[in-house]
Amino acid sequence: MICTFLCAPFLIKAQTEFLFKADSLFHNGEYGSAALFYERAFFESHDVSTSSFAILKKVDCLKKQNLFTLALAQLDKIRFDLLPKDVQPKWRYERAFCSYMSDNFSQVEKEFEFYNVFINDTAFRRSMLFLETAALINEFKWQEAKTSLQQYIQFAAADSLQKMDLTAKAEKILNHHPKYKDPDKARQLSIMPGLGQLYSGYPAEGAFSFILNAAALSFGVYHVLNGFPITGYFGGAGMLQAFYFGGQNRAAILSVRSNERKRKAVCGKIITLMNEVP
Amino acid sequence: MKKASFFTLCFFSWLLSSAQTIASKDASTELKFYDYLLQNGLLNDARLQYNIINGVSGLTLAQHDSLNYLTGWSLYQQKILDSSSFHLKNVSFASPLYMKSRFFSAYCKTFIREYDSAVFILNSIEVNDSTPFGKLLNLQRAGIALLKNDSVGFRKSSSAFDGSYYATAKEEKQLVKYYKDLSGQKNKSPAVAALLSTAVPGLGKIYAGKTGEGVIGFLQVVLLGFITAESYNKAGIKSGRFITTASLLSLFYVGNIWGSYFSVSIKKKEKRNEIYNAVLFDMHIPLRTVFN
User: Fold this and answer.
1) Nearest Cβ partner of B45 from A3, A35, A230?
2) Which residues of chain B does A70 touch, with a Cβ-Cβ cutoff of 8 Å?
């Protein structure tokens, strides 16, 4: 009996041992060490089922550490078509989630499309719709975001009353969506000093830029007309050149900043709305 | 009873030897996993795994060498050179990777400008000068002497340059060229640069080797000069216009002289850095050729 008992430890498979250890570390909040042991379980495993399980658990560890790009790289370790069928929906969801958190919104769309076409499972559908809607908003694709949000409400809301209420709120937010401000267009509009900043949504800066450019031009013209041609041409032209091209660059920067600010505002409102569904 | 005791004894002896085999197999498996992590760029995991392996008792010398080499090489690729040098230096003589580890350990120290440590590591390599490793060692010593501005040391090492080993032939010629460039660098005087800029704005910077900056400085001062002259002619010496432009002119003029004074040492430093980077490059290429 003693011999049998002593033989038992040698019969435990290596990968199971590592998974147990990893789970224990995960529950204690030691995500870095847990990730190592999940990786070890992947390294030692001989079947796709265990490998895919270990990878998914490792992805959870990396998500806890906000290492989303690294988590996404883990999900490339196994070819999707080799995964067990029951793992495939979660695998797609994790890819979409990590892509979203890495600001790779176009990848989120691809994952969603794949999920729709190839996966016949509704377990993660709500989460995928959530991510798809948020990604579309981040890309300023308002019409598509509206459609996606409608699908989310239809799928997730409990009753028709809640659906109507949420739909109305969604329309209110998305019908007054901010326009995308193109940095190149802002730069081109700055041919007229200040117009680029106005287009980007910064009228005060636009007015200030216009005044600076006008002042530099006036300085030059005044001095030329009053018998100081060298001061006028070189002093005035030098200042005008600095303010003019500087204003163009500034307009482009402001448009990017404006897009970022508006994107975050609308995204925040839509996410709050989607979270209203229990 | 006696038979039962005998079989029990045999069983426990087998168990003990199995445990030892498992322990050394464990270390070997841990090292394989460590290598896998490094190959796949999982550096956070590799760092944790290193700590685990370090804690395993009964590592053989070969396993210690593998651990040090893998760690040192990974750190080298991540450009964490001080730690890389430490680990590579700990690879023992018995390892087939001893030579590579020593040379690269010394190179890491050279790169981070710890020349004396680099020389100390190179001096621990015992090879015949006429062998390929000997020629490689000589090249490394010559490179370090050049980086330390040790002319005597360089001349001593470079006297053995014969261009007979394909891996170091070209780099030997390059090092000699760099030595001539560094020796031939004329010592330019900051005071002369400042005086030249006093006479002609920007000329001091051209003397220092910064032609573009000199020309721009000249144009700035000349332009301001014209504007000041115009203000003087049209508005008079007591006018606010003249005082403003004259102040600006003085500022730029004095700034030009000041800049010229420092540009000599800045240019010298830039030139030296250029040569130093080239020396490091030419020390590195033969190492990659020989050991890869």
Assistant:
1) A35
2) 44
Q: Does this model's pTM top 0.80?
A: no
Chosen for mutation from B22, B32, B33, B249 (greatest number of chain A CBs closer than 10 Å) is B33
- CB-defined contacts A:B, below 8 A: 35
Q: Is the pLDDT of residue A46 over 90?
A: no
Chain B residues with CB-CB distance to A222 below 8 A: none
Looking at residue A159, what DSSP letter applies?
S
Phi, psi at residue A224, to the nearest 5°?
Answer: -65, -45
> B153 CB contacts (<8 Å, ≥6 apart)?
B141, B142, B144, B145
ipTM: 0.76
Q: Give pLDDT tens digits for A50-87.
A: 999 999 999 999 999 999 999 999 998 888 888 888 88
**Burial bucket for residue A213 (CB in 10 Å: 0-12, 13-18, 19+):** buried
A234 touches B at CB < 8 Å: yes
Of B11, B33, B245, the CB nearest to A3: B11
Task: Give chain A's mean pLDDT.
Answer: 89
The string of pLDDT tens digits covering residues B88-126 is 999 999 999 999 999 999 999 999 999 999 999 999 999
Structure tokens at A181: 């401000």
CA distance B194 to B190: 6
How many helices and strands, by DSSP H and E, does chain A display? 15, 0
In this complex, the residue of A32, A43, A229 whose CB is nearest that of residue B36 is A43
